[in-house]
Write a structure and sequence with these properties.
- With 280 residues, this protein is an alpha+beta fold.
- The chain folds into 2 domains: 76 residues; 175 residues, no CATH class.
- The chain is built from 8 helices and 9 strands.
- The C terminus is likely disordered.
- This is Lipoprotein.
Length: 280
């Protein structure tokens, strides 16, 4: 190959590399812009804000006390019940209604009446569990297991009797509590709704069928309305998951293209070095 042909070939190779890298840079730039937009719109949930406010406490529970949505299913709200465990008492308060985004509402749509964040002996966990499980049920300071009709149930001592109605404790069997503690749920990320997930003992569907749940805002809504909201947030959640998966695949493709371009560039440089440089 004469010198002129080598020069032309070198120019063509360099043009291809620059064009390919330019496309990669453009794709990367678009992804960075998208990530930046997500970062700007993301904000802490009300639960995260509550956790921050309670940072000085060693033991507390945050319960999803009630929830609501408007008729169009575009505005979502939560109300929380906060319990702070002290050496000689338990402090309880309910928050005002808090606006939440659709993703957070969807995440906890089955968790009404349950703890969704707990701090025990300074360790924080975010797990949907029956209210009272992490601090009070099974703790002999607050009550004891009693046999009723062949089954064992938790009963609070007199000074803590208010917790029974507050937690809707009628369904808190010893067998369920044992299942939670021995089934690998405790301290993990999986929510616990009872021994049969298809027929929940705890959570939204169970709580809103109880007397205390029916008096809640969500419990008083028609089933047709609740079903519409469930369908809407479920669909949005699935779309969000597919978008995240697509972004991940796109990022992988860009990385592969960049790697191939880099490999070609190195190969080109190696060829020029062996031939003594262009024009020789």
């Amino acid at each position: 190959m004469n010198s002129t042909a080598k020069v032309v070939l070198g120019i063509l190779v360099m043009f291809f590399i620059v064009k390919t890298c330019g496309s990669c840079d453009s794709s990367t730039s678009r992804q960075q812009t998208s990530s930046s937009q997500v970062a700007k719109t993301w904000k802490k949930s009300p639960v995260d804000e509550l956790i921050k406010e309670l940072n000085g406490e060693q033991n507390f529970s945050i319960i999803l006390f009630d929830m609501d949505a408007n008729e169009s299913g575009s505005d979502y709200r939560h109300q929380y019940q906060v319990l702070i465990q002290k050496p000689d008492t338990v402090l309880e308060k309910k928050t005002d209604w808090k606006e939440v985004d659709e993703a957070f509402f969807s995440q906890h749509i089955n968790d009404m009446g349950m703890e969704i964040a707990t701090k025990k002996d300074g360790k924080l966990t975010k797990q949907a569990v029956p209210a009272g499980y992490n601090h009070y049920v099974g703790n002999e300071k607050y009550g004891r297991w009693e046999n009723r009709g062949g089954s064992s149930f938790w009963a609070f001592y007199g000074q803590y009797a208010f917790m029974s109605s507050m937690f809707n404790m009628m369904t808190y069997r010893r067998s369920y509590w044992d299942d939670y503690n021995r089934g690998g749920y405790y301290g993990g990320s999986r929510g616990y709704y009872g021994p049969n997930s298809s027929n929940p003992v705890y959570g939204t569907k169970s709580y809103t069928s109880s007397t205390s749940g029916k008096s809640s805002t969500w419990g008083s809504k028609p089933n047709t309305f609740k079903d519409r909201v469930r369908t809407k947030v479920s669909r949005s959640s699935n779309q969000s998951s597919r978008f995240s998966s697509t972004r991940s695949k796109s990022s992988s493709t860009v990385n592969k293209r960049t790697s191939r371009s880099s490999s070609r560039y190195k190969s080109s440089r190696s060829t020029r070095s062996r031939s003594g440089g262009f024009g020789k």
